[in-house]
Predict the 3D structure of the following.
Amino acid sequence: DQQVKQNSPSLSVQEGRISILNCDYTNSMFDYFLWYKKYPAEGPTFLISISSIKDKNEDGRFTVFLNKSAKHLSLHIVPSQPGDSAVYFCAASGTSYDKVIFGPGTSLSVIP
Amino acid sequence: DVKVTQSSRYLVKRTGEKVFLECVQDMDHENMFWYRQDPGLGLRLIYFSYDVKMKEKGDIPEGYSVSREKKERFSLILESASTNQTSMYLCASSLVRAGETQYFGPGTRLLVL
């Protein structure tokens, strides 16, 4: 039973438009959420995070939104660039957890 | 810059062989992790370690063991490789126990024939 879900295995977006990647979680004890980006043949790299005391965190072109009541978060990339084409993993953790739980990933393709 | 290195990028092994995957980090991180990545399943935690000689099971420890004799080095051992252990193996380290950013190595793609 997946505690962190990314229901879209893939997403295609035109260059310059907005990419929205979604993530749902089931465990209300999670209080820290992260997004990682992974290129083929490389390890994942940290992108952006948000704690449960916030509902938005922004870093340049990347913004993460958290809706705790819906147990939903989303990553917005504006504007999307071809170099953003990668697999994006949503992850969740909490102070009562020893580890981070990763979602299955969404493969983003940004078309020039 | 944190650097996490893994001993091999690609490995081909036979069923029943003992396989060692090595991971080294250079940032004096307390915590180290081994994951496997499979399509549609994301990253699944095999084992993790919070200190030298300490190890804890993750979500899928069966068929694996680990060793952490030095702080910077965390080894994953497949005691008797099987075809269902064909996967991408990723090592990671972090400074803080939970929720903190993890730094990943480049991965080892293991094929078990």
About this structure: The CA atoms of residues 45 and 79 of chain A lie 20 Å apart. Chain A touches chain B at residues 4, 6, 9, 31-32, 34, 36, 41-46, 49, 89, 93-95, 97-100, 102-105 (CB under 8 Å).
